[in-house]
Amino acid sequence: MSKDTLASWLTTRSFDHWSTGQHKIMPEAFFKKWANDEAVLLDVRYPLEVEHMQLPFALHIPINELPKRLDDIPRDKIVATFCSGGDRAAVAYAYLQAQGFENVRIFKGGYTALTAELMPGKLRKLVK
């Protein structure tokens, strides 16, 4: 992202929604959308992290590859950015917003929240 693009994005945004949490999506809400093919989890972790905990249902694009892989990201679905702790997910969120992705959210809770949703049976109920 160029300085001009970031500056433009920053000056044209109202950050009021940040204080209300509207820029995040709760895991349960995400998986309901995902089960209906309305959302994708964008995993921006590094390859070594992905090897440690693979998420076969996610779209894996390391954060440093985002600029050259924007065409791999669907624009017709909710895109929930995910990483282990949240920092890269927030950067990916801001970058995608600056690139014109309007329906982007940060997956709230990182690993802890994700693993709670992947408990046996919980996800199965959504896809039935």
Q: How would you describe the overall organization of this protein?
A:
It is a single chain. With 128 residues, the protein is an alpha/beta fold. The protein has one domain (3-11, 20-123): Oxidized Rhodanese, domain 1 (3-Layer(aba) Sandwich). 43% of the residues lie in helices and 14% in strands. The chain is built from seven helices and five strands, in the order H-H-E-H-E-H-E-E-H-E-H-H. It has a five-stranded parallel sheet. The longest helix is centred in the C-terminal third of the chain and has 12 residues, at 87-98. The relative contact order is 0.19. The model has no long low-confidence stretch (mean pLDDT 85).
Key terms for this structure?
alpha/beta, 5-stranded parallel sheet, 43% helix, 14% strand
